[in-house]
From TrEMBL:
Gene3D superfamilies: 3.40.50.2300. Keywords: DNA-binding, Phosphoprotein. It comes from Rhodohalobacter sulfatireducens. This is Response regulator transcription factor. SUPFAM superfamilies: C-terminal effector domain of the bipartite response regulators, CheY-like. Pfam families: GerE (PF00196), Response_reg (PF00072). Residues 5-121 form the Response regulatory domain. Residues 147-212 form the HTH luxR-type domain.
Length: 214
C-alpha cells in the first residue's frame, strides 16, 4: 500500500506548522498541500479527490456543512477528518450529520492522528478518544431511557456491539473483544440495520447518539 495523500485546511499558523511537522515525519502519509481556508481546500481536492482532508473547525470562510456539500461534488463520500477544540456533543453531531468520516480534538496524540488518516483512507470512520467518550456517554444515556419494548427489540449482544461500533471498532476487532467470529458480528450488524431501518454504519452511529433506540 502506498502513502496516503493528505490535504490540510488550518487557518492558525501554529497548528498548521504542527500538522506539517507530524505528517512530514510519518512514512505512511504524504502531505499534498496545506492551506488556510475552505475554498482553497476545495480547489485542491478537485484535483486529487482521493486525498484525506484534515479540516480545522475554525476555518474562517465556511462551516463544515457547506464545505462537505462542495467536496461531495467531486466525490460521493469525501474522506474528511475534523480537527477541533470542541468537546461539545452538539458540534460532534453537526459534523457527523454533515458526513465527515473522522473527528479528533486538537490535543490528540500524533499517533492517533496518523491512525485516523489511515482508517478514513480505507473508507472507515475514525474518532479520537474524546469523541468516542462523548458518543459512549450519549449512547449510555439513550440506553437507560429505552422502553421495555425497545429492550426486547435490541438484544443484549446487539447493544454490546452497538457500543463498540460507536467507539469506532471494526467488525474484526469486535469479534476479538467478544470472542465471537467476524461473521457473527456482521450478522448482528445486519440485524441491527434491518430492525432500525438504517442503511449504513454512519447512520447507526448517528442514531445511537441522537435518539432512543426503539
Amino acid at each position: 500500500m502506498g502513502k496516503v495523500h493528505v490535504l490540510v485546511a488550518e487557518s492558525f499558523d501554529i497548528y498548521r506548522h504542527g500538522l506539517e511537522s507530524i505528517l512530514n515525519s510519518s512514512n505512511k502519509v504524504h502531505l499534498e498541500y496545506v492551506c488556510k481556508s475552505g475554498n482553497e481546500l476545495i480547489k485542491y481536492f478537485r484535483r486529487k479527490p482521493t486525498s484525506v482532508c484534515l479540516v480545522s473547525s475554525g476555518i474562517p470562510d465556511m462551516n463544515i456543512h457547506d464545505l462537505m456539500m462542495e467536496l461531495e461534488k467531486a466525490i460521493e463520500e469525501p474522506p474528511v477528518i475534523v480537527l477541533t477544540h470542541s468537546t461539545e456533543l452538539t458540534h460532534l453531531n453537526q459534523s457527523l450529520k454533515a458526513g465527515v468520516k473522522g473527528y479528533l480534538t486538537k490535543n490528540s496524540p500524533s499517533e492517533e492522528l496518523i491512525d485516523a488518516i489511515l482508517e478514513v483512507s480505507q473508507g472507515r470512520q475514525a474518532f479520537g478518544k474524546s469523541a468516542s467518550q462523548l458518543m459512549i456517554g450519549k449512547y449510555a444515556d439513550s440506553a437507560k431511557k429505552l422502553p421495555s419494548k425497545g429492550k426486547k427489540l435490541i438484544t443484549k449482544r446487539e447493544r454490546e456491539i452497538v457500543k463498540l461500533i460507536v467507539q469506532g471498532y471494526t467488525s474484526a476487532e469486535i469479534a476479538n473483544l467478544l470472542y465471537i467470529s467476524t461473521r457473527t458480528v456482521e450478522t448482528h450488524r445486519a440485524n441491527l440495520m434491518n430492525k432500525l431501518e438504517l442503511k449504513n454504519t454512519a447512520a447507526l452511529v448517528r442514531y445511537a447518539m441522537e435518539q432512543d433506540l426503539s
